[in-house]
UniProtKB/TrEMBL annotation:
Gene source species: Planococcus antarcticus DSM 14505
Keyword set, alphabetical order: Membrane, Transmembrane, Transmembrane helix
Residue numbers spanned by region Disordered: 141-186
CDD domains, per the entry: HTH_XRE
Gene3D superfamilies assigned: lambda repressor-like DNA-binding domains
Protein name, as recorded: Transcriptional regulator in cluster with unspecified monosaccharide ABC transporter
InterPro entries, A to Z: Bact_Cytoskel_RodZ (IPR050400), Cro/C1-type_HTH (IPR001387), Lambda_DNA-bd_dom_sf (IPR010982), RodZ-like_C (IPR025194)
Chain ranges passing through the membrane: 117-134
């Protein structure tokens, strides 16, 4: 049992001052009444896990007009210790991240090589055309054939005209090649910083952005934009096999509060977001920049 008598009393007094009953608060926060009573009494043994104590206290505080972060900071010595987190999934996540980096590096190397190759090919073709006409002009300046072979003069004059047409077509090929190169920049997700429970990412990509949240076990989930407006259907504990898709096309910033990261998969426009920290709970912040 975790005893938070001062914190529980402070929250209860704020609730009474607002005129809320526990049933009213249950409707507002979607937290079961028995959990709310446990927070007020300092009895958290019935909670799903230690990290839910913090999450429920913050939501309780927000509902009665208090700052949950400040309350937890004031009573941090009374908070339960976070449960140890299994680190076994990380090698596969790192391998996936390395494959993504390798694919990006390969694409960048190909994009750098192709223009140089096309320029070199174009130069070779120009040199071939110049050499051909130079050779033709040299042959035309040679001594005339003997009079008894005068018919050969018309042959020399007409001979260069035949190969000119294929050479002109060949010289046009490098101009058509760049049209086959992929158009538009790829989306890029990068880690900007990690500070405390928060990891900040930057995203540069298309303006049409869809974030999918998929739970494979129970975990607290909340998502807000830069104006602290709720983006999900409601901050809550998501259960296994529950998913929710958020349209982020009109926002510049999203902040996710995740209780148990090992039970939640995040995917942005089909690309998985890898966790940089193994904390329960933790915050994931993504700042968006539209590609030109």
């Amino acid at each position: 049992m975790i005893v938070l008598s001062e914190l529980g009393t402070q929250l209860k007094e704020a609730r009474i001052a607002k005129g809320y009953s526990l049933e009213d608060l249950q409707d507002l926060t979607k937290i079961q009444k028995r959990y709310l009573a446990g927070i007020e009494d300092g009895n958290h043994s019935m909670m799903p896990g230690a990290f839910y104590v913090r999450a429920f206290i913050k939501q309780y505080a927000a509902a009665v007009g208090l700052n949950g972060e400040e309350l937890l900071e004031q009573h941090k010595l009374e908070m339960p210790v976070n449960e140890p987190v299994a680190r076994s999934p990380m090698p596969s996540a790192l391998a996936s991240r390395n494959r993504s980096v390798n694919r990006t590096a390969s694409s960048e190397a190909y994009a750098e090589f192709m223009p140089k190759f096309l320029v070199a090919l174009f130069i070779v073709l120009i040199l071939a055309v110049v050499w051909y006409f130079y050779s033709a002009s040299t042959n035309s300046g040679s001594p005339n054939l003997p009079e008894d072979e005068g018919d050969g003069i018309s042959y020399e004059e007409s001979a260069p005209a035949a190969p000119e047409e294929p050479e002109e077509k060949a010289s046009e090929e490098p101009v058509e090649e760049p049209a086959a190169e992929p158009a538009g920049p790829e989306s890029v997700l990068a880690v900007e910083e990690t500070q405390g429970e928060t990891t900040t990412y930057s995203w540069q990509g298309p303006a049409d952005r869809q974030l999918e949240i998929a739970a494979n076990g129970p975990s607290w989930i909340a998502a807000t934009d830069e104006n602290q407006e709720e983006l999900t259907s409601g901050a809550r504990v998501m259960q296994a096999e529950e998913t929710e898709t958020i349209d982020l096309s009109e926002v510049d910033f999203v902040r996710l509060r995740i209780g148990d990261y090992s039970n939640v998969d995040l995917t942005l426009n089909g690309e998985p977001i890898e966790y940089e920290q193994q904390l329960q709970p933790q915050n994931v912040v993504i700042q968006f920049t539209n590609s030109e």
